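#structure-requests
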Amino acid sequence: MPDLPLPDPDCGSCAARDERIAVLEAELRGQAEVLAELRAQVAGLERALSRNSGNSSMPPSADDAPGRKPPRKQRRAAQRETEKKRKRGKQPGAPGAAMTWAEPDDTRDWYPSGTCECGADLADARDTGVARSCQQLEIPEPSAQRIQHDLHRGVCGCGREHIADRPPGVPDAPLSIGPQLRALAVYLVVYQHVPVERCRELIADAAGARVSDGFIHSCLRKAADLLAGVIKLIKTLITAAHVAGFDETTLRCGPAGQKMYVHGAFTEQHSLFFLGARSLESMRDFGILPSFAGVVVSDRYVNYYSKNWEHIAGHQACLAHILRDYQDAAETYPDAIWPVQAQRALRGLIGAWHAARDAGLPVIPADAADPLILEFRRAVRAGLATVPRIPGPKHATAQHPGRDLLEFCSETGREDAVLRFTADTAIWPTNNISERGVRPNKTQQKISGRFTSEDTTQDRLDIRSYIDTARKHGQDALTVLRAIFTGNPWRPPAAGLSP
């Protein structure tokens, strides 16, 4: 076969062809880049839609959003077995609420009426005693009472005159509203989340008293002012605690309805709320973390691990959050074993913690904790070997799903913050106590809408701190609110504080 002549490199058609090829190659590279970006966007959207309350910190209310997959129920075999045996309704050993026979506050006699078969009027029948009795629990009909307090003057034998003191809760004014009614208004608005207008209507219907919206707002301001000393004491007691949980939630507040944050600090006996931003400055203004010297129980939000809190003894990461993060990893890597293995180990440790605490033990026994800790560590190592780190600055580069979690849980990361509860049963493995504490603030907003004043919102939060702390000490909410307006608010025990 004869050799074909080579094209002349100086040929104009060849140059045009090469130029065209270069343009097409550039277009292909651009299209490849666009395609990669679109694929990344689709992956991001699919991942966002896969978020739910079972694999992230999203609330359960978001699970019903269009296109979002509901969380899969991840239960251990033991839990499933327990559920098979468990019957519906009240469980054995659970406290009951059945009515019992008690000493009556009022006894009413009823006699036969009408006509006997013989035609005699039963009103003339001879009474032979009580045939049977029945008790009924009832409340009195709504009827607000107007009480007049007459302060008498007395003259001593020496000739000096004395006038009786005003009773507790009666201000120095000709007309006023009593402490019980004020306490009811605050109770309905702050504790039961009733909007102010509906609170006014409820008081009129259920208590027979007509009050104004301005009166209800004044009760909130007055209660918050009278509680200033108690709130300061609660803050001091939380700051001095060995373990405290911290959490925050969003809240629309102010004239423009801007997004703010309610910060909460909690112990098993105390609750405290503060309105601010999600920043170190607001956490510092809260006034607890700068001086707190105990163990902080929280989620993995970076500000809780700031070096600004130099007195902190240590951290305990909320395992409820971490378990959800591992569930996310299990759904992202369905063929991987390490996410399920880590979940199994952590759930086992939480169960061992409950058993040790119920038995009054200061730590989880080594024979129960050590095998589970080893299993957890092996799961983390396997995950680190499977999910590589994307090079780049640690906080500026988005990592593969689960990588940041694994680094946090690793022995070179913050494993001590994950497993600290295993060495001290006084430390909670989850931050559920804090999440339950801040949740009513969201309920309040959903019912009443945004709050127009930051000062009024903080007043409500102070009152909520007082009520929640009192209830943790077994006090009745309405009773302790009435104590505010009688000038003697309830105070938590200050045991352990220096005089």
